[in-house]
Each structure stands twice: as C-alpha cells, then as structure tokens.
Design goal:
The complex is a heterodimer of chains A (232) and B (289).
Chain A: E1 2-13, E2 16-27, E3 31-35, H1 42-50, E4 57-62, E5 65-66, H2 72-75, E6 80-83, H3 95-102, H4 113-119, H5 121-125, H6 136-148, E7 154-158, H7 166-174, H8 176-180, E8 185-190, H9 193-199, E9 202-207, E10 210-215, H10 222-230
Chain B: H1 2-31, H2 38-55, H3 60-87, H4 92-113, E1 129-131, E2 137-139, H5 140-162, H6 164-174, H7 176-180, H8 186-211, H9 218-233, H10 238-258, H11 263-277
Antiparallel strand pairs in B: 1-2
The chains are: A alpha/beta (232), B mainly alpha (289).
Chain lengths: 232, 289
C-alpha cells in the first residue's frame, strides 16, 4: 500500500526553483533512500513533505489525504515526523525535555520515553544534559529519538551521516532496524551512497531537482548510480 | 532602624516591580517582543478594576478574579490580532506595533476616564498595617502584593519547567520553526504566552491601582520600573526579575530615606550602574541562543 505519493511537484525558494516536476512514492513499511549530490534538492524535498515548504504546483498525498496545503504542525498528528538537517535540538532544553517536546502530539504507538532509552543507550546516558552541550552524534541520536516520540508512520531523516565520525554514523544506522521493525516507514536522505544502498529497500536519485534514477539496490549498477549522481 | 525599615519597605515594593516585570520578561523570553505597551496595559487593568470596584461596587478581591481572565483574553487577542502578524515582518515591527498600541491605549484611557487621578477603593486595606517592632510597620497591601508576586513568579517558573505547554514555550523560544515539526503551532504558543503575561501584568496593575493614585499616563513610569527590574535581574530569568525588582525597590526606598526626592533618582542610578558594569544583569539566563 502506498503511504506517501508525490505527483509532479515544483518547489521554489523565491525565484529559485529547487525541485522540478518530481514524482515519488513510498510504500507502507519500506525504507526509501533519496540520494544525490549537494544541491540536488534532497533536503528541500523532505522540508516539503514535512510542510515547512509548500509546493508551487503538484500534489502530496499521505495515506489518501491531500496534504499539499496542510501546515507542518498539522502533519505531525497525521504521522509525519522530520529529523531536520542540522538536527535542530532545542539548546536550552535537556535531552529528556527535547524528547518530551517531541511527544507533544501524543499519537499512540510503541515509542515511549522508556522504549527510546532502551533503543538509544547514547540518548539515555545524556538524558539530563542540555541540548547545547551535546556532541554531533549525540545531537543526531536525540533528534531521531525526538522525532520517534510522536510515533510517526513516516519518519523523514535528513542527512544522518553529515559531519559525523564514521563510527558514530554506524552506531546511528544500527538503530534503524529497531525503527523499521516497528513497522515505521522511513524516507532517508543520504549523501553517502554506500550507506543508502546498504540500508534502503529502494533508492531514488535526484539531480538538480529532478528524479533521474529509481530502483532496488540489488538491480542497480555502480555505473548507473555514478551517472545519475553526477549527471555525467 | 530607619534604614532597616527602608530596606524592608524596599523589598516589599520590589515584589510589585517584579510582578510588573514578569510578563515583560516572559514575552521577551518566548518571542523576543519588547512590549512597550506593557506599562499602559497594567494601567488598563487598573481602570477596569476601578470601574468594577468604584462604579459597580464589586469588592476588590472579586475584581481581581474578574480582571485577570479579562486581561488574559485581551492578551490572547492582541497576539493573534497584532503581534503574530508583526512578527512575520522582522524584529523591528513588533516593537513599533507595541509603541503604537501604547500611544493608542493611553489616549483611549484619556478619552474615557479623563486625566484625573483615580484610585481603586479597597476600604481600609491600603492603610492597614502589621506592627513588627516599635518602629517598623508593614503595610498589609504591600505584604500581600509581595507574597502574591513571589507565588506568581514561582508558579510561572514551575509552569515553564514542568508542563507540556511551558516546555513548548521554551522550545519555541529556542527555535520557532522546529517546534512546528513537533506538531506545535508556534503562533498559538505565542498567544498563550501573551495571555499569561497580560494576566500577570493585570494583577500588578490592580495592586498599583489599590496602592497609589494613577492616571492614563502613569503607564510610562510603570514601564520604566518594569524594564529596570528585568534588566537588573538579567533577561530571560524570572528569579532574576524578582531579584531585580527587589534591588530596584530597595534602591528607591533607601534613596527616599536619604531625601524624599531622591527615591526615583537613586533607583535609576543603580539601574545605570548595572547597565554600565554588568550589562548581562545579576542573574543572566545560563544558555544564550
């Protein structure tokens, strides 16, 4: 069953067009990785799905509901949660308070404070620390945990690996099965193609705001991906 | 003994200043709005109280219960009607809107109530006092004001620290865009913050109206006291605001003890000294963002 279906959206920042007539769908329970170079429109796509940006044309349908014009804070109760680019942890709140703010919309589901601390030992260790005092990896883990607190049906993860040490990236990706194991659909934006190919059920590659390649990792060759990624 | 008395009276006066300043501090803390209409809004509350008590014969304690929710509703409406719109136009717009609001409200009060001095009639409450020693008497109203101020500030701090809405306010203060991703409408959080701020300033306005003579322009003075308390205490910290109010109150009372005309002067000098030597205030917020 299709959970999210995007048909021919255009997204602009003022006069600048970031996404051109993009089609994308995510099935319930699957993990889709959107890959692409810097400036391909990946983060713009996630912001648009979360509602921080509105498409200038085209439709976003979530679980049969057209949400193209729904403000972001009304999309959370529907089951869409975004871990934003740059993590955006509330600096003056503790980790635990960050998580509680994430649970402001109380959707029923498996993710409670206790379940989060169980799945993310790193977050549990830092629960009383202020957001401003977290390392990059701790911030990223907290940001994912915070998004999960709303028990989303669709979790949007933006640039999880950006700026983190490889060992930390690995730790964070290791929690992904625990998330998808709960039936949560994941749409992940990732610059690291190898990570995307390893963890995703399907990948879609963007180039300059257009979709250029889509498929199951096993079916795609390195050459195909290189061509799509760099546009050469 | 005179000096001890002055300090004690100053502390009690400081409670009123802190209560006045708490809402100013809250609005700045959550939305970065410098509400220049804060003083006149206190006086608006005093006039509403005046109408209920002096014109309609409602007892003063009932008037408090009536005026607080009225001011909260006014705050909610002001935020949705004016400030939320102004906030989308950059940092200067809310300041100008607040300034315009202060001018309009002051003129409106002049039109309706004239420039005559008024006072909310509380019977003997304003003159009743408790004798502590042979020479020290504590006014019942100042003591009551002080106790209420401390309770309100403690309550506000507990609310901000331990309730979902309080957390949402602090989160919105940190990052208004990201709270939307948590399913929180930041404009709604702002409206509730302003409602809370005006409820507290309404309470302060009523105490002012019971304590002293007021007129439509009295809000200017009130605004200055509130600002001084916030700056002395440190922006964004409610306990700091309480301390700031007390420092200002003590400075004024001790100044008045030196010479009755020095009260305001010494208060302002202490404020200037803090600005010059410790501009972050006595108790600045630990995290600056």
């Amino acid at each position: 069953m299709t959970l999210l279906s995007i048909t021919s959206i255009d997204v602009h920042y003022g006069d600048f067009q970031a996404i051109y007539s993009l089609d994308l769908h995510v099935d319930e329970g699957e993990t889709l990785a959107v890959i692409g170079a810097n400036g391909a429109g990946k983060s713009t796509l996630l912001k648009t799905i979360a509602g921080l940006l509105r498409p200038t044309s085209g439709d976003i349908v979530f679980d049969g509901l057209n949400i193209s014009a729904t403000p972001p804070y009304r999309r959370v109760p529907l089951g869409i949660a975004l871990t934003p680019e740059g993590r955006k942890i509330f600096p003056s709140l503790t980790v635990e308070e960050n998580l509680k703010v994430g649970a402001h919309v109380k959707r029923p589901g498996p993710w409670t404070l206790a379940a989060i601390y169980d799945a993310f030992p790193l977050v549990a260790d830092r629960r009383h620390r202020l957001g401003v005092n977290l390392s990059g990896g701790e911030q990223q883990a907290t940001a994912i945990a915070r998004a999960l607190m709303s028990n989303p049906r669709l979790l949007l993860l933006d640039e999880v690996s950006l700026g983190l040490a490889p060992v930390v990236v690995e730790q964070i990706y290791d929690t992904l099965p625990a998330i998808t194991g709960q039936g949560t659909t994941v749409l992940i934006v990732e610059q690291d193609v190898n990570l995307a190919m390893k963890f995703a059920d399907r990948v879609q590659c963007l180039l300059e705001g257009k979709s250029v390649l889509e498929g199951v990792p096993a079916d795609l060759t390195r050459d195909q991906i290189a061509t799509a990624y760099f546009g050469i | 003994m005179q000096w001890l008395n002055a300090v004690i009276q100053g502390i009690l006066l400081g409670g009123l200043y802190a209560l006045l300043a708490a809402g100013l501090s809250l609005m700045f803390g959550v939305m970065r709005i410098v509400n220049l209409a804060h003083g006149v809004l206190a006086i608006v509350a005093a006039y509403i109280g005046f109408v209920f008590v002096n014109n309609l014969g409602v007892p003063w304690y009932l008037a408090i219960i009536i005026v607080i929710p009225i001011m909260a509703v006014v705050g909610y409406a002001l935020q949705w009607g004016l400030f939320n719109r102004a906030l989308t136009k950059g940092g200067l717009a809310p300041l100008l809107v607040a300034f315009g609001l202060a001018v309009v409200l002051t003129q409106l009060l002049q039109e309706i109530f004239t420039a005559d001095n008024r006072r909310i009639d509380t019977g003997t409450l304003a003159t009743d006092s408790i004798q502590v020693t042979d020479t020290i008497y504590l006014g019942l109203l100042p003591v009551m004001t002080f106790v209420v101020a401390v309770l309100v500030i403690a309550g506000l701090q507990l609310f901000l620290n331990h309730t979902p809405l309080g957390r949402a306010m602090r989160a919105a203060s940190d990052d208004p865009d990201t709270v939307k991703l948590m399913g929180i409408d930041n404009r709604q959080v702002y409206a509730l913050s302003t409602a809370l701020a005006l409820a507290t300033v309404g309470l302060a306005g009523l105490f002012i109206g019971m304590k002293t003579q007021f007129s439509p322009t009295y809000g200017d003075l009130v605004l200055i006291f509130a600002f001084e308390a916030v700056i002395i205490g440190g922006l964004g910290s409610l306990w700091g605001t309480l301390a700031g109010g007390m420092v200002l109150g003590i400075a004024q009372a001790v100044g008045a003890q030196i010479n009755p005309s020095y009260g305001l002067l010494i208060g302002n000098l202490v404020f200037l000294a803090i600005l010059a030597f410790r501009p972050q205030g006595l108790f600045p917020k630990a995290v600056t963002t």
